[in-house]
Amino acid sequence: MTRKYEWEAMSSQPYILVAQDLRKSYGPRLALQGFSFSLKAGHVLGFLGPNGAGKTTSIRILTTILEPEEGHFVIDGIGSEHPDQIRRRIGVLPENLGFPRQITGLEYLTYFGQLYGRKAAEAKENALALLEVVGLQQRAKSLIGSYSHGMRQRIGIARALVNDPVVVFLDEPTLGLDPRGQQELLALVRRIARERDTGVVLCSHLLSEIENVCDDVVILNLGQIVARGSVGEVIGRVQQNIILQNTLRVQVPPASVTKARQVLKETPNIKKVTLIGEMEGWLQMELINATNENSEKDIQMNNKILGALIRAKIPILGFEIEGSRLQDVFLHLTEEVIK
Amino acid sequence: MSAIQKVNKVAVSKIKVSESTLPAWWLVFRREVIDLWIGGKAFNLILIYSILLGGMVYVYSFNTELSLIPPREAVYEMLKNAMAVAMFVGLIIGADSLSGERDRATLESLLLTPANRRQIIVGKFLAAFSIWPAAYVIAIPYLYVLAQGNEVLAPALFWGAITGTVLVIGYTGVGMLVSFWSSSNKVSYFISLGIYALLLVPAELPGKSAGAAGQFLQWINPMAAVNHFLSKHLVNYRSVAEFWTWLTSSVVLAVGSLMVLLIIGSGLRLEAGRGSKLWAKLGRAIGVSVITALILVSLLLASPASAFQGEQDLTISIDTEYKQGKTGDKVEFNTLVTNNGTEASPPLIVAMNIINLDAAGDVVDPEDWSPQRTQYIDSLGPGESTNLGWIINTILEGNYMVYMVLIPEPAGAETTSQAVASSGIHLTVAPFTRLNPRGVLPYAIGGPLLLLVIIYLVYRRRKQQIDMGGS
Q1: Burial class for B144, CB neighbours closer than 10 Å (0-12, 13-18, 19+)
Q2: Which of B98, B237, B104, B225 is nearest to B163 (CA)?
Q3: CB of A195 within 8 Å of any CB in chain B?
Q4: Which positions of chain A have pLDDT values less than 70?
Q5: Tens digit of pLDDT for each residue in A31-62?
Q6: Do the chains contact at B466 and A60, CB–CB below 8 Å?
Q7: Is residue A329 part of a domain?
Q8: CB distance B466–A104 less than 8 Å?
Q9: How many domains are contained in chain B?
Q10: For B114, which of A84, A98, A195 is closest by C-beta distance?
Q11: Domain shared by A91 and A117, yes or no
């Protein structure tokens, strides 16, 4: 089957974005190679990777800002050889997007609405609705120069939605936001995907963001995909290959850290207790005689440790087995490739 | 109904472009013009420009020496300077148009829209060019007051509009081309200002057009060539038919820069220049060639050697090509006598001659006009030069040609020598009139003040449109 027919066949699937074998290099440096993935409508796909992994390059290729040297992609049935038509179907919040300062949020969105072919009145109506979506309706007539960083990220997301896109690309949308701002923005991303049935590609280096928001994940390292699938699949698949470090983590209130450490040191089967997050109260325990197979024996051992803390009346805020979080998978995968 | 559902309802025209929607170039142009003018950059530059013009009018009016400048020359000088400033502003705004957006990270969102790249370029170009009509309108009252009712005003306004438009198009286009290929705004400004200076300096140098090479270099410099055309036509009463070819370089620059901009504009991207290596190499080669050529031109024009070179062993040249003044003016100039031969010259005599061009070439007796009719040089060694200073007092109004003749002293009674003539000074003498200072001052101060009032009103209206609340 030629590539053309192959793509026609793939486009008939319920995917709104299909990328295959994308490749890009900057001089001798390979930025992206064999980059293939797909995205369904209403799904949020996370792009994960350390700095220089190729996340921004891949987004720039998919948003037609850069041309791939090899490979092809299709968005909403339109092939990458038609960048003008693709631009009508996508919305983008680039990393470090700049804004004109002497223009109001409403004028900004109206202007972009018109650039996408809307009439002035319609563009303005749409802009007002979008400002409401991103919670900026009260600041519609304020100059963007007076917006906080979080507000600018929101107006950037509104701009990305101005053409009612099929796929939205968000490159580090929570960068520089405080924890509340991050949570609110991620909730907005989820709403956009669910309520508008829009596919969202979320590029981030914050693993908790991806884990909480994304349905699927693509992990990139040195320009290559090292894992892809649903978040659960990726974690499960990698867990099978990770040699666990016989490690547990437990979170207690910061005021109880000293007492918890004392209790855990006195508990059998614990080799070592380390404080890993003083502010958050995370303690890490290295175990003796763990089977690493999630066996009945391991579960009993974990219960005994938690029981010791409960008996000492220490509240348990969190509990993790190493390898169960996306963070562990990410570190394992990226470290492996670097090695 | 949730807000998102509302958006979906509004977004029924998704992707489909209505026939009645505005073209992208117009949208970009309108947005850019608002940013430029409401954002303050254009108003600030225009305010500085009007203060400069006001200052010039004031200087012309109150400076004793300069107040004797005839209206024709004053109008020409004002027009020349107004155009030079407008070209500078166009170049600066053009230089910022693309690389500035790259630096401010605002270009990417524009490139992500389906707007045609070429239309984006056109919109930005027109916005950058919008400075010129405003600058021209602001210059009109100053030109009017300097003209003092002289008939020069009409042709000055006409030719100023035409040549200024052509030059500002050319310079704005060059600024945008530099911006297109510049990796940062600093680089773009640096190169653009360098080009401006390299073209401005030769245009302002005295004795720039002596010799065929000098004339040619002046002809290919758009700014210098237009200045030459305007001075000949407005000051020296010369016809357009005689000097229209001096507009060629400015038209070529305007048309050329616009065409290149439109051709490469389709490849506008986030990075500097075009994507293909061929275009990148071509752009670099063109840039290096243009800058090298401009440096060579400015060096050649700035070099006195170009003004005084000749094939004969003995040469004489004058450092002034033309001069306008009023009756009673003192005109000073220098002649350079050079022995290009391999042997020492005999004693030399330099004689001044003045011809009345309005009276079919009648000879004017220089006795009343100059304290020195001749000067004597003992001898000049091989390669040696000497500079002689001359003074003329303009007595009568009219149109004159002043030229010098260098006469080697004959070796004996039965020998003669070959006299060498210099190029002439075209001297135009107008009757004495003085600008009315009281009539000038309101224009000098009123122009910038009026502009300040306009700026204030525009900003006040803008403030009413926006919510000034902080974050």
Answers
A1: middle
A2: B225
A3: yes
A4: 1-13, 236-246, 277-279, 289-295, 322-339
A5: 888 889 899 988 999 988 888 888 889 999 99
A6: no
A7: no
A8: yes
A9: 2
A10: A84
A11: no
Residues A122 and A253 in one domain: no
Please state, in angstroms and as integers, the Cα–Cα distance from residue B213 to each residue in A101, B170, B185, B322, following that order.
51, 24, 36, 18
CATH of the domain at B383: 2.60.40.10
Task: Give yes or no for a contact between A103 and B311, defined as CB atoms under 8 angstroms apart.
Answer: no
Q: Residue B364 — φ and ψ, nearest 5°?
A: -100, 135
Q: Give the model's pLDDT for residue B177.
A: 94
Query: Same domain, yes or no, for A201 and A53?
Result: yes
Whether A96 contacts chain B with CB within 8 A: yes
Residue for token pair 């065929």 = B212
Select the residue of A88, A94, A130 nearest B114 (Cβ to Cβ).
Answer: A88
Strand partners, A215: none
Q: What is the pLDDT of residue B392?
A: 84
Q: Is the pLDDT of residue B92 over 70?
A: yes
In this structure, are residues B179 and B287 in contact, taking their beta carbons and an 8 Å threshold? Answer: no
Q: Over 70: is that where the pLDDT of B19 sits?
A: no
CA dist B66 and B56 (Å) reads: 10
In a domain? residue A328: no
Q: What is the pLDDT of residue A241?
A: 59
Q: For A65, which of B35, B38, B112 is closest by C-beta distance?
A: B112
Contact at CB, A141 and B465, closer than 8 angstroms: yes
Look at residue B5 in the predicted model and tell me its pLDDT: 46
pLDDT digits (tens, 9 = 90+) for B107-160: 988 999 999 999 999 999 999 999 899 999 999 988 888 887 888 899 999 999
Nearest to B471 among A92, A117, A151 (CB): A151
Residue ranges making up the domain that contains B324 = 314-430
Whether B34 and B150 map to the same domain: the answer is yes
Would you say residue B174 lies in a domain?
yes
A67 and A209 together in one domain: yes
Q: Is this structure's pTM higher than 0.80? A: no
pLDDT tens digits, B234-255: 877 778 888 889 999 999 999 9
pLDDT of residue A110: 95
Please give, rounded to a whole number of angstroms, the shortest distance from the CA of B290 to a CA of chain A: 28
A180 and A45: one domain? yes
| Interface contacts (A, B; CB < 8 Å) | 131
Quick one: what percent of chain B has pLDDT higher than 90? 27
**Statement to judge: residues B177 and B56 lie in one domain:** yes
Alpha-carbon gap: A36 to the closest alpha carbon of chain B (Å): 22
Closest to A119 (Cβ–Cβ): which among B21, B270, B468?
A: B21
Predicted confidence at residue B212, as pLDDT, reads 67
Query: Is the Cβ–Cβ distance between A62 and A89 less than 8 Å?
Result: no
Q: Using a CB–CB cutoff of 8 Å, tell me whether A12 touches chain B.
A: no
Does residue B468 form part of some domain? no
Query: How far does the CA of residue B165 sit from the closest CA of chain A (Å)?
Result: 29
- Calculate how close chain B gets to A236, using CA atoms only, in Å: 35
Identify the bridge partners of residue A62 per DSSP, sorted by sequence position. Answer: none
End of a domain among A185, A214, A240? A240
Backbone phi, psi, residue A30, to 5°: -80, 115
Distance between CA atoms of residues B467 and B471, nearest Å = 11
Q: Do B109 and A88 touch (CB under 8 A)?
A: no
pLDDT given for residue B160 in this prediction: 95
Query: ipTM for the complex?
Result: 0.73
Tokens representing A114 are 């018109």
CB contact under 8 A, B114 and A87: yes
- Judge whether A24 is closer than 8 Å to chain B, CB to CB: no
A194 and A64 share one domain: yes
A332: in domain: no
CATH number at residue A46: 3.40.50.300
B35 part of contact set with chain A, CB < 8 Å: yes
Phi, psi of A189 (to 5 degrees): -60, -45
pLDDT tens digit string along B363-378? 787 666 777 788 888 8
* Structural domain includes residue B14: no
Which residues, numbered 230 to 289 in chain B, qualify as contacts with chain A under a Cβ-Cβ cut-off of 8 Å?
A: 269-270, 275
For residues B195 and B218, state if they share a domain: yes
Q: Do B31 and B166 belong together in one domain? A: yes
Q: Is B149 exposed, middle or buried (0-12, 13-18, 19+ CB in 10 A)?
A: exposed
